[in-house]
Amino acid sequence: MSVKAKKHLGQHFLKDRGVCQRISDQYKEHKGCKKVLEVGPGMGALTEFLLARDLDVWAMEVDRDSVPYLNEHFPALHGKIIEADFLKIDLKSVMGVEPYAVVGNFPYNISSQILFTCLEHRNQIPEIMGMFQREVAQRIAEKPGTKKYGILSVFMQAYYDIEYCFTVDEHVFDPPPRVKSGVIRCIRNEREKLPCDEVLFKQVVKMSFNQRRKTIRNSVKALLKGNKVDHEFMALRPETLSVDQFVELTQLIDGLSPVEG
Fold it and tell me: How many CB atoms lie within 10 A of CB 176?
C-alpha cells in the first residue's frame, strides 16, 4: 500500500531518510516538551524518526488515503491520528490543555496559515519546527534591514526566537517541488504578551508593510488621528524596525488623542 501525492493538498513526500533524520534532530524539546503534533505526516517519512526519539507523537492528517497507511505502518500512533484540517479544528478539543510542539513537512500552500494558527495558541506551543518553502522560511527568520523582513517575520519574532537550520534540495521529494525548502526552528520566548495593545500592534505592522516603500508616517497616517507626530520612526521604512520598535510605535499611536479641527 502506498499513497499518491495530491497536488491540491500541496503534498511532496520526502524520500531521503538522511534528510528526515536531520529534520527530526532539529527538535529540541524546549522546556522538556515531549508531546509533538506532526501536521501532514503523509506516509510517515518524518514520523518514523520522531517516534525513534521516544516522543509522544500525535499526527494530524487531512488526506483520507494517508490515515489508513499510517495506522497500518505505525502501530505506536493508534488512537493518536487525528483526521482533520489543522486550520479548522478546535485544537484544544483534541490536544487538551498541556503543552505540545508542532512539527512537520508543512504543505507550502498553507504554511503561513499554519503559523498564524500556532500564534493563536502560542502559550501552549513552546516549539515549532519544520520545513517550509525556502523563501518563506528565510522570511520568518530574517532580521530587520532587508527586503525579506516583513509581516510574518515581525509577528513570529514577537513571540518566538527563530533559527534557520538548513536548506533542502528539490530532488529528495516525490514529486519534486519547483523550489528549494528550508527547515526552521521556532522557540517560544519569554513574552507572555506584548506591552501594548496587541490588536493595534497587528494593525500597525500590517499597514506599515502593505505600503513598505513609503515611510511609516505615510503608511500609518490613518492611525495618527490628525496629529503631526515628530518621532524618528516616522521617517523610516518598516523593514528597518525591530519587534520592540514596532511595540514602541504602537504605544505611541495608542496614546494619541484626536486633533480637533
Answer: 12
Alpha carbon distances (Å) from 29 to 40, 111, 165, 186, 256: 20, 22, 16, 11, 43
**Cα atoms in the 13 Å half-sphere on the side-chain side of 198:** 10
To the nearest 10°, report the CA torsion of 11, 15, 19, 24.
70
Verify that 146 and 176 share a domain, yes or no.
yes
ω into 75 cis (within 30 of 0): no
Query: What range does the domain containing 232 cover?
Result: 198-254
**Total domains present in the chain:** 2
Beta-ladder partners of 102: 37, 128
Q: What is the pLDDT of residues 108-133, one digit of tens each?
A: 889 999 999 999 999 999 999 999 99
Q: Where are the beta strands (DSSP E) in the chain?
A: 13-14, 35-39, 56-61, 81-83, 101-105, 127-133, 160-168, 173-174, 181-188
Cell of 45: 517519512
Residue owning grid cell 523563501: 135
pLDDT digits (tens, 9 = 90+) for 52-105: 998 999 999 998 889 999 999 999 999 999 999 999 999 999 999 999 999 999
**End-of-domain residue from the set 163, 188, 213:** 188
Final residue in a domain of this structure, among 142, 168, 188: 188
pTM for the structure as a whole: 0.93
